[in-house]
Each structure stands twice: as structure tokens, then as C-alpha cells.
Write a structure and sequence with these properties.
- InterPro entries: PIG-T (IPR007245).
- It is built from 8 helices and 23 strands.
- By secondary structure, the chain is mainly beta.
- The protein has 2 domains: 310 residues, no CATH class; 123 residues, Immunoglobulin-like, CATH 2.60.40.1170.
- The strands form 4 sheets. An 11-stranded mixed β-sheet has the order 5-6-4-3-7-8-2-1-10-13-12. It has a 5-stranded antiparallel β-sheet with strand order 19-20-17-22-23, with no helix packed on it.
Length: 485
């Protein structure tokens, strides 16, 4: 009877044709941090109807089909990623909650579907996404583009909506429903390592859900749906106790094997720094892969995890505890801070640092709430009212209590330069009921978005737009590295 049951389950899984992939990527962040990235990918070959689902989370499928969403990105983040010290993560995310989506061209009222979508996701992930409305939603024109296939005759910018909630706090109540979307939940597989008691002690942690369509054939006439769930964590060696780490130190226990429903379960560890700062991996990896990408060479230790294995505790032990690596700045990073004091006037300053020897084109998106009006006449780039660095700009003025302020700039950054963007603002006199809770926190402003095609893969770990799993980064030959920060 058991044999017949296994054969029947295999036949059912094959009929649906869903694939599930789980991966972990670990990279040291010199001098004192460690980056671990989880991604769980579900590929759905038959996405016409979610009445019957196999490995895919039915709740996400119903949301996508009900509101006719073509592509969706949701992140909940605590902490700030230090690009100038750590380079680029696999997936960038702004502090707080960030949500943006492209809708089907057949949707008549996108704003109404957008509000329904945010309210539904709010209940699904126990987050405050129901506070997203027209007064904090914008339609980016240049900064964001879909990562899945789109029709050539469709104006994708008009189908896009973007909103962020910088005050949103990520907690255990967000992680629990997120894990329940996985085929094995948190009982088996890599998700068993996601112990809320351990991961919320990190300097930076971010969970995300990314839904898009990917090509199922070479000519892209057929597509399948990709649901990618991600977790990014940054540990401090001071909290761990030393630069020697293991799964037990990071997550509280070892890995109990792969998820039985996973097609592949792989762990990648960046060992490029092993040349200058030797360390030993335990247990030894199954293989070592050398990847040449964008003028940069990365060495990765690869572990292929099986289902029927004993508890695995992957770890690193350095030969010398006194030696610490030196961080190498990425080709492009930026800083952002506020000028002025009091509750009347001020300014927002964004510094773009190009460390590369050639010019880089970037798109900068500034999103200010309605109670913080920014005036286009006060825009200064390197203290100049009119700059030759600006190739294109878009400005949408806000409206009190109805619409945020929205500014986008297409700039060409000179080689080895620092470009400063300054814009003034003035506070709106708020009613006493409009002040946010926890007055000691002050006011939160949404993060800026910087989009660029990087000419080199230095400190670059992102997966190519056309790729699905992390092995698609091996020897990737794209001419430019697309990055959103």
C-alpha cells in the first residue's frame, strides 16, 4: 500500500508539473559581518487557474488571479543595508514595508484594485499594508521596470503602483504566515533554520515575496509563474562571539535535511576571501565553483543537500582570529540625510558616489509625503540650479492630504566623483489627530530609489533578470549589471 501511495503522489506531482527550489547563499562582509540569504522558488507551469494547487501557495495564487497582477514585489525590512561597506545584496529592500506591482492592461480601475491588493496582503502577512492609499502611492516613470516578460505594445509605467511604509516594524507575526506559504512550512528543509528568536537578533533582516512570469520556451510564447520567497540576514561577529560561525551559532540548531518536495536544495558559500584570510569549511563541500562575471571572479563552495541525511551543521573556522578583512567599496553607492532643524523648514540631501573610472547613468526617485512639500524650484545639483548632468526629469506635485510629491531624475555621474542632490522642503501645519504615534520617533520619510546599470560585477551578488536560481549567476555574460538600491 505504501508503494502504491508513493507512486500515486509522484504521478499527481508530475501532472501538475510544479517545481520547488530552495537555496542558501552565505558571504562574509568584511570586516565584522556575515550575510546569509535564503530563497525558496516555486515554479508553476499551469497558472490559468488556482482552484487546484500543488506546491504553490494557493493564497498567493488567488491574490494574483483575483486582482489581475502581472508582477508583485513585497518586502518587510528591519535595519539598513550599508552599501558602502557591504556592497550589494542579492535583493535590495528599503527599511519598513515596500510594495509595488504591475497590473494587467485589462484592469479598468487600477487604483481601486491597488487598494484591494494592499488590504488583502495586509491580512495575509499580518502587516499594516492597509494604510496604503492614494496619499502615499506613486507611479514611477523611470526607476522601476518589470523583471518578467511584457508585451511590446503595452505602457508598463501606467500599470505600476508603488508605496512604502517606513514606520512598519517587522516582527514574528510577519514571519509565521510567510513560512506557512512554503510546501514544507518550517518542519523540514531550509526554512527550519529560520528561528524567529535568532534572526530577529541580527543587524539587518528582510523577508520578501516576489511574483513574476518567466519564459517557459525560448521564444517566450509560453510563460510560467514564479513565486520567490526571500530572507536576508546580516550577523555581527561581535554578537556571535567570533568570526568563526556555524549553523548552530547562527540559527540555534543544525539543518535537518532538505524539503522532501524540493527539486534541488543547495547551499552556496562565498570563499573568495579564503585566499588572503584562510579558513576551513566543515563538512567539506561537494564541489567548488569559480564564476567569472563582469570582470570579477568569485569562488563558491557548493553543498547539495539530500532529504534523508542526518543533522547538518555547516561551519567555518579561521586559522587566525586576529586578522580581519578590509572592505572594498562598490562602484556606486549613496548617502542620504536631512538638513535644518525645527518644525518649519529643511532639506533632503542625496549624495551619489561613483568610484568607477567611467561615467554611470543612474535614475534617482524621491518620494516625499504630502505633509512635507518639496519644491522643484529649490532643486540643486552640486549647488547648481541647472546642471548638465541631468538628462531627463519628472516631477509630480503633491496635494494636501491626497497625493505625495514625486521626483525622478536621470543623471550621468562623472567618473570618480560625488554628485550632491539637494531639495528644500517645508513642514505642513498638521491637525492634532494627524500626528503619528510615538512622538519621540519623529517623522519617517520613505527611502529614495537609485537604479543603475553597473559596468562591473564588483561586490555584486544579484541574480540576472533572466535567471531563476542562484546558479544562473555563474559566468553570467550580460553586458551591464542592473541594480535597484
Amino acid at each position: 500500500m505504501a508503494v502504491l501511495l508513493i507512486i500515486f503522489m509522484t504521478a499527481v506531482f508530475g501532472a501538475f508539473g510544479d517545481d520547488f527550489i530552495e537555496e542558501i547563499f552565505i558571504k562574509p562582509l568584511p570586516p565584522t559581518h556575515l550575510y546569509s540569504y535564503f530563497q525558496f522558488i516555486t515554479l508553476i507551469n499551469n497558472n490559468d487557474s488556482f482552484v487546484h494547487s500543488n506546491l504553490s501557495p494557493r493564497s498567493i495564487g488567488e491574490v494574483i488571479s483575483r486582482f489581475k497582477v502581472e508582477e508583485l514585489h513585497l518586502t518587510l525590512t528591519e535595519g539598513q543595508w550599508r552599501h558602502n561597506q557591504w556592497g550589494y545584496p542579492v535583493v535590495d529592500a528599503a527599511p519598513g514595508a515596500e510594495l509595488y506591482a504591475w497590473f494587467d492592461p485589462e484592469v479598468e480601475d487600477i487604483d481601486a484594485e491597488w487598494r484591494k491588493l494592499s488590504a488583502t496582503l495586509s491580512g495575509l502577512f499580518c502587516a499594516s499594508l492597509n494604510f496604503i492609499d492614494s496619499f502615499n502611492t506613486i507611479t514611477p516613470q523611470m526607476a522601476l521596470w518589470p523583471t518578467g516578460p511584457v508585451k511590446s505594445n503595452v505602457n508598463v509605467t501606467s500599470l505600476l503602483r508603488y508605496a512604502s511604509l517606513p514606520r512598519e516594524i517587522v516582527c514574528t507575526e510577519n514571519l509565521t504566515p510567510w513560512k506557512k506559504l512554503l510546501p514544507c512550512e518550517s518542519s523540514r528543509g531550509f526554512s527550519a533554520l529560520l528561528n524567529s528568536r535568532m534572526i530577529h537578533n541580527t543587524n539587518y533582516h528582510s523577508i520578501g515575496v516576489h511574483v513574476r512570469k518567466v519564459c517557459a520556451s525560448e521564444d517566450c510564447t509560453e510563460t510560467k509563474l514564479e513565486i520567490k520567497q526571500t530572507v536576508a540576514l546580516v550577523y555581527d561577529y561581535k554578537i556571535i562571539g567570533s568570526n568563526n560561525w556555524s549553523f548552530i551559532k547562527l540559527f540555534g540548531h543544525g539543518l535537518p535535511g532538505a524539503c522532501p518536495l524540493a527539486t534541488t536544495s543547495t547551499i552556496y558559500i562565498d570563499i573568495t576571501s579564503n585566499v588572503t584570510f584562510p579558513f576551513q569549511l566543515s563538512p567539506p563541500p561537494d564541489k567548488i565553483v569559480s564564476s567569472h562575471r563582469g570582470g570579477s571572479v568569485t569562488n563558491l563552495a557548493v553543498y547539495n543537500i539530500e532529504t534523508d541525511v542526518e543533522m547538518i551543521n555547516v561551519g567555518v573556522k579561521h586559522n587566525s582570529k586576529e586578522k580581519l578583512g578590509v572592505n572594498v567599496p562598490p562602484p556606486l553607492h549613496f548617502n542620504r540625510y536631512v538638513l535644518g532643524y525645527g518644525k518649519e523648514f529643511g532639506g533632503i540631501v542625496t549624495e551619489l558616489i561613483n568610484n568607477y573610472w567611467t561615467a554611470i547613468d543612474v535614475v534617482v526617485l524621491e518620494n516625499a509625503p504630502w505633509w512635507l512639500p518639496i519644491q522643484l524650484s529649490s532643486l540643486r545639483i552640486n549647488s547648481e540650479a541647472e546642471s548638465k548632468l541631468v538628462k531627463s526629469q519628472y516631477y509630480s506635485p503633491g496635494r494636501s492630504r491626497q497625493k505625495p510629491y514625486h521626483l525622478e531624475l536621470l543623471l550621468t555621474l562623472p567618473p570618480r566623483s560625488t554628485t550632491t542632490i539637494t531639495i528644500d522642503f517645508e513642514f505642513v501645519f498638521l491637525k492634532w489627530q494627524e500626528y503619528p504615534p510615538d512622538a519621540n520617533h519623529g517623522f519617517y520619510i520613505g527611502s529614495a530609489i537609485v537604479t543603475a546599470n553597473l559596468p562591473t560585477a564588483k561586490n555584486y551578488t544579484s541574480i540576472p533578470v533572466s535567471g531563476i536560481s542562484y546558479n544562473s549567476t555563474f559566468n553570467a555574460s550580460q553586458p551591464c549589471m542592473y541594480k535597484e538600491m
